[in-house]
Amino acid sequence: MVSVGFHGVDMSLPEPPSAAIDPFFAAALGAGEWTHALAALERVMSFSSAALTVFEGERSPIASVWHNIPPGIVADYGAHYHRIDPCCTFLHPGARITHDARYIAEADMDRSEFYTWKEREDGTRYHLGGQTSPGLPFKATLTLHRPRAAGPAGPAEIHRFSAIFTQIELALAINHRLQLARTETSLAADLLEHNHNGVIMLDRAGRILFANRAACAMAALGDGFKFAPDGLHTARASDDAALQRLLHAVMGPGTDCRGGALRLRRRGGKRDYALVAAPIAPADAGTLFPHAMPAALLTITDPAPTAISAPACLAALYNLTPAEVRVAERVLHGDVPKQAAAALGISVKTVRDHLERVFRKTGTNRQADLLRLLLSLPR
Question: Which pTM value belongs to this model?
Fold first, then answer.
């Protein structure tokens, strides 16, 4: 077959649809670029330029990717010409595939301000496009453009584009879901990292899939537990059997264990860690990578009160002065007024005065009540 070229567009026999579809899935999965996908679609469909736009609501674009379209055209279109674009003016919400003949006759195109502008500025006249199904949680449009010499899209081209666009729509839906999943994962990770308790997730074989900063800091001390390639172990070899029995009960095949608790003895006379283990619901039967799914959640708590809510936060919550915050911190450490006075370099009477004001402002009556309140605050 003879190839006929126009403005750099190859009109030979088209490539298979997969040549246009695969780059969109690559872009959706983060393994390719959207501009490369648009270029592949242009080549397969024998068009010279393309635009992909995602909308918030019906008419407000929030993201666009353009290929072979001059920046000036993009700016002018957004400022004025989208208002008189026949495709936008007459587009029905249910119309998935769009092309010029659906909205305007050839003779009217010659008299149209919009088509006159397009041909003058970028040399294109005809378009073929699609908009995503209304049932999706987003709206996106994809349009292809080519010059007058190529002629309008014919029935075979429209059918071919429709089949390709169905797959492109699926790629966009995958990208949308992945972005939501990344956001959810990022938020969950932030919450876990800011938790002052150690949080560890194990896979079905007991290997560590995740450990937050607090857990890593505890493990680095090496006085209560440690991380190993095969999972979690106690610092004292004599205690490890009890830990492994608990983990097996929580994660063993067919187990109905709802969880358990264990004290992790520490070296150097420090207060023992408290470990709570709970199973995580198994992955769906259809999961191809069950080994990558967590099977158990471990929470490790240091009972020793060593931290307090950020002083600025504590002061804002209860209108405490800096001096009152310092006294509250000594209460958290278990000091009686005499010990707090020695630690802060002030008199016992001054400590008692500050403490009375802290009681009044926090609605507590004694140090035990204040301690419970302080321990309940985020650290």
Answer: 0.69
